[in-house]
Amino acid sequence: MTCAIVLIMLTACNGSEDVGEVREDISLLEKDLETISITEMKTFNESVPDSTVVIDDQEDVETMQSIIGEGQNSRQPSISDVIDPDYEIEFGKLNYYVWLSESGGSFQDQRDNDHIYPLYKVESQEMLEIVEEALNE
């Protein structure tokens, strides 16, 4: 009986990544970034011409980095028919599609279109404020 329980536990622990599990290879919390780039998007494959801005304000960089980095803890399966993103945000070599509104948002690592990460209303509003300020300068 004990062997069966141990076997079940080993099998359960040996599975693929669970929803919500942190992927260490994409953690932004450990990176010292000086700038991030934000581009307004028309579609997944097309950006709005001349819309790329670079944010170098350290407080804004750290806020965006923290929201995206900590948001990686809430990974969920992606819906197959996702609407076009509002923005693409580049953190060094890591790029994310981002959907933002006053009521909430989400982001997706471009290397992993099988998952999406939801954002709380407050996080989405904070990111939206930073993005809109940068795009309107």
Automatic annotation (TrEMBL):
It holds the Pfam family YhfM. Residues 50-134 form the YhfM-like domain. It comes from the Bacteria. This is YhfM-like domain-containing protein. It comes from Geomicrobium sediminis.
